[in-house]
Design a protein that fits this description.
The chain is α+β, with helices and mostly antiparallel strands. It contains four helices and ten strands, in the order βαβαββββαβββαβ. It has an eight-stranded antiparallel β-sheet with strand order 3-6-2-7-8-9-1-10, covered by helices on one side. The N and C termini lie close together (6 Å).
């Protein structure tokens, strides 16, 4: 497991997103119901609706566990170039996926397991590479600051 030490921005963000889309088969975005008006966020997600796998109302997702509340968790496949472009080009940093402006906690999954988990409000991201090739490619992103942690 690797902790991302500094918010990936600009080209670093785009390269990380490309890796995540290449390695993972799904990702999610979260809309918290307790954080103000959400209608505009739901409209925004219509742009990537063709990639939507399912919408769940959950109290737990890749980076968060809520006590007595639920949020809308949107699960998408990573196979569509339009969706990849939407994720890459709508913001300029990983932690920009934060309410109230945008859905939050962009996270990626590989074969049903968390590969990248983001908590935007906490400015935290963890990556769980599954092989040496993935580790090498992450380390080859110039400027991506990673710290190896024990699981």
């Amino acid at each position: 497991m690797y902790k991302v030490k500094v918010n990936p921005k600009n080209l670093i963000y785009k390269q990380l997103i490309d890796l995540a889309f290449n390695y993972c088969d799904t990702f999610h975005l979260v809309i918290r119901k307790d954080m103000g008006k959400i209608r505009h966020l739901k409209k925004m997600l219509l742009k990537i609706k063709p990639s939507l796998i399912e919408l769940r109302e959950e109290s737990e997702w890749a980076s968060t566990i809520l006590d007595d509340e639920t949020a809308y968790v949107y699960y998408y496949n990573t196979q569509d170039a339009t969706t990849r472009d939407f994720i890459k080009n709508n913001v300029d940093s990983l932690y920009s996926w934060e309410q109230p402006e945008l859905p939050e906690d962009l996270s990626f999954f590989k074969n049903g397991e968390v590969w990248l988990a983001t908590s935007s409000h906490e400015n935290e991201c963890y990556i769980f590479p599954t092989n040496q090739n993935e580790i090498d490619n992450l380390q080859n992103i110039n400027g991506l600051e990673l710290e190896k942690e024990e699981e």
